[in-house]
Amino acid sequence: MTSASEALLSTTERSLLHRVARAQSEGRAPSFVGAVARGGGMVWSGSRSCVDGHAPDADTQYRIGSITKVFTAVLVLRLRDEGLLGLDDPLEKHLPGTGVGEATVAQLLGHTAGLAAETPSPWWERTPGSTRPAIPDVLGDAPVLHPAGRSFHYSNPGYTLLGSLVEAVRGMSWEEALRTEVLEPLGLDRTTVGPVAPHASGWAVHPWADVMLPEPSEDLGVMAPAGQLWSTAADLCRFGLFLAEGDDRVLSAATVAEMRVPVGPPAVGDPQMGYGLGLQVAHKEGGTLIGHGGSLPGFVAGIWVDVEEGLVGVALANATSGPATGVVAADLVRIVAEAEPRLPEPWRPLPAAEVDQELLELTGPWYWGTYSYGLRIGAERGVVLEPLKGAGRRARFRALPGGGWVGLDGYYAGETLRVVRRPDGGVSHLDLGSFVFTREPYEPGDAVPGGTDAGGWRGL
Asked: Which residues form the Beta-lactamase-related domain (predicted)?
């Protein structure tokens, strides 16, 4: 399926279908659906099935497991943006009596609270939610395994706590909050807490024989915020575009960008994989992907988003194990990015209202010691400071209302850049978090910390 305005080349579509067909065959999946979104909507979808003439499509529901966690994180960030809680708030402040209330909201979102990965027995994904009706049943007697804030340790109970936090602060069920605050505004009509036809059935495929066994589909109860949802490739494409661009009806572009920043150390053994506020962050050759994987008995799912390319890849299958949906979703993004890379926006001059002569005078080369940097103007009176050669720290800065700029990324994120003037009003230097940038390297009379040698520059 393609959108006329964003139709892919037939050769690209063939490559995408080939990747899905390989995944279904090699992964021994009863069915497999893949989809790609770009430019505001889904531009391709394809599927394969073991039943001739009965392939699913992008509107067929699959269970998406832990991709549910991203939806829960969105609800929590909405509460933060409304001023109803802070990311550094301890859980106890809003949800007392859990026994793990010292963990902060941010630690729970980023899996650095030190909580156990799973609930006490029996296996929560394959048993009714009524088996563990309340938080104490989810946490058990020893819920904390690691010091909080020190390491990444994925925790399903942690997201159960976040779902209960949403309910406590909102005064409504997690399901109702999700439906009214996220699903309806984004038009995700086929994302639900229970299956709605047409939907796939979950299967276990025997590891050593080509036979199958139906898997149970349980209501997870209080664990729902960690993995309950069913969705479609089409809905997840729309959700992926939201994670790339934001939507002021749900979360601003600035907040979804905040979700994409890793908040703790990477998982042991995988330095390329980090975790933000509810999102996995994969630093791979050629760029960064954000998204999440998911699995429940009978289903595996993956969604990856390349924000720079504006691409979303989704892969869904109805087998407990075998299909590498996360790998396939990333491959779908890669195939389109390589075959049909995003065209850069045309260069345009700044709007006349944004041209400021005083700001224009600050452009050009600056020196921190002997390191050379260039300063250029960005949109809305922002600036960019980047090394002109060799190693150095590049950063973008946003203009502050009272003057100066604040760093947006890299080493200087959150640091203040300001212009320091001489008594006559001329520019003396730039101050960036106490680092002094001058127009010349170690020019006598400039504001160089520690001064300069009286003999000046010299040869041997």
From this structure: 22-337
